Amino acid sequence: MQILIAEDEQQIAESLKKNFRDEGFNAMIACDGEMALKLLDEIEFDLLLLDWRMPKLSGLDVCRTLRQKGIQIPIILLTALGDLSNKVEAFNAGADDYITKPFSFDEVLARINAVVRRYRLSKDIIEFEDFTLDLSRRLVITLDKKQIHLSDKEFDLLKFLVQKKGEIVSKEILCKNVWNLNFVPQTNICEATVKNLRKKLEEATGKKYIKTIYGEGYSLIAD
Amino acid sequence: MQILIAEDEQQIAESLKKNFRDEGFNAMIACDGEMALKLLDEIEFDLLLLDWRMPKLSGLDVCRTLRQKGIQIPIILLTALGDLSNKVEAFNAGADDYITKPFSFDEVLARINAVVRRYRLSKDIIEFEDFTLDLSRRLVITLDKKQIHLSDKEFDLLKFLVQKKGEIVSKEILCKNVWNLNFVPQTNICEATVKNLRKKLEEATGKKYIKTIYGEGYSLIAD
DNA sequence: ATAAAAAATGAAAAAATTTTCATGATTGTT
DNA sequence: AACAATCATGAAAATTTTTTCATTTTTTAT
Question: How far apart, in whole angstroms, are the C-alpha atoms of residue B91 and residue B61?
């Protein structure tokens, strides 16, 4: 996960970054609001941790600007003041959550998880066991945030199986949905692609996910 | 936009169709529920305007049948009866919205816009001028519903430009976001890919969309 | 008008993906 | 156990995509 920390107090920013690294997250620091906007414009982040008080542009301004532009990245605002009116202001500006300083890193983690989970529901992200499919970016990410590189057909096949997880999917249906064929071809395209997908999934996770049901089809199983 | 009007009262149907044409939408009329289903099966529509009371199959039946088949087209139900229980029934059957007769055409337009916007947000669909990007299926569709076949890199490039439509995007930023490079390579990968993308877009739409801003970058422009 | 920098282009080379084919292994049935 | 059907596999062939390179064209500044 790629996180942008927009925070002018270097100590806090660095400490967050270090903690994130230990969690396997990749964090980058912007020391003011303008820099944050610039970085967000250039690089794709999964989450923005945004300090309220910052030089040049306040966190609130950054938040409003982003939402105005239609950018939907999850945003958590950090603030030193814990009163309710700030909270309301934060949400009105388009923040997804709100943390009061001083905070523990555990709290940050918990909030991030909640916010990101909500975000995923609204986006096209499907989780299955040890990996996550990002349908719009066509990425498969493992638990340890590594990317599994799948070819187009492999991705389509996995996507279809994940969408039908547990169910048995016949080759006929696969041909329709992955190859857009209304018949099962004479060749063994399905089997060949399944084979390659299996290999990549096992290399990445060490587990066997695609089960063959003799005479019926394939099925994606948990463990 | 391709609209199907399912309405047995010819006068209403024709009036709607005429109004739609003035708005630049293409509408087709089905005079009963069965005909509506048949047309929906054969032609891709963007919206279904569905009368409640119709011969053979009622609007509600059509709605339920479509949803049962997993077809997700936005549906607006038209009804002569304005009571609340109908509204609930409509939504339960899977309609997206509900208009009570008599209605003004402005109201129809407003509801259509709202429904279609919501649908697009939920589907990760971005529109730009004469084409539409379907991010989760990685498809580019022209106004006349033809598919533009783009390679992976071409799609990523177009997607990025569409997301920044109007803005100038430097090669540096493209390299970061399309090729995941933190530098501009010595070779002219960007230019070459832009060239191929331009060719395909122009072949499909006859228009030039990607403008070069000398020394600065590229920009996707309207017309 | 001219030179230098930047961008466009066509074609070739390199790399990756998709598909096919021949062969071997597995499964269910009799 | 034997058979037929089904599936798995490795490797080759075919196709497509990506990248590079040499050259031409365009743009900007002088």
Answer: 12
Instruction: Identify which of A77, A149, A65 has the alpha carbon closest to the alpha carbon of residue A111.
Output: A77
Facing B136 at nearest CB: one of A44, A135, A152: A135
Domain with CATH 1.10.10.10 in chain A: 126-220
Chain A neighbors of B138, CB-CB under 8 A: 138
Pairing state between β A131-134 and A147-148: unpaired
Between chains, do A44 and B177 touch, taking CB under 8 Å as contact? yes
Q: What is the CATH number of domain A2-123?
A: 3.40.50.2300
**CATH 3.40.50.2300 domain span(s) along chain B:** 2-122
Per-residue pLDDT tens digits for A155-209:
999 998 988 888 898 898 888 888 888 788 888 999 999 999 999 998 888 888 9
Show Cβ contacts of residue B31 under 8 Å, excluding neighbours closer than 6 positions.
Answer: B7, B8, B10, B13, B54, B55
Is the CB atom of residue B149 positioned under 7 angstroms from any atom of strand D? yes
- In this structure, CATH architecture of domain B126-220: Orthogonal Bundle (1.10)
Which nt sits closest to B186, CA to C1'?
Answer: D20
For residue A47, list its beta bridge partners.
A3
Cα Rg of chain A, angstroms: 22
* Residue pLDDT, tens place only, B98-121: 888 888 888 888 888 888 877 876
Instruction: Kindly give the interhelix angle for B171-178 and B189-205, rounded to the nearest 10 degrees.
Output: 80
Q: What is the pLDDT of residues B46-67, one digit of tens each?
A: 899 999 989 889 999 999 998 8
Is the CB of residue A184 less than 8 Å from the CB of residue A171?
Answer: yes
Q: What is the CATH number of domain B2-122?
A: 3.40.50.2300
Q: What percent of chain A has pLDDT over 90?
A: 35
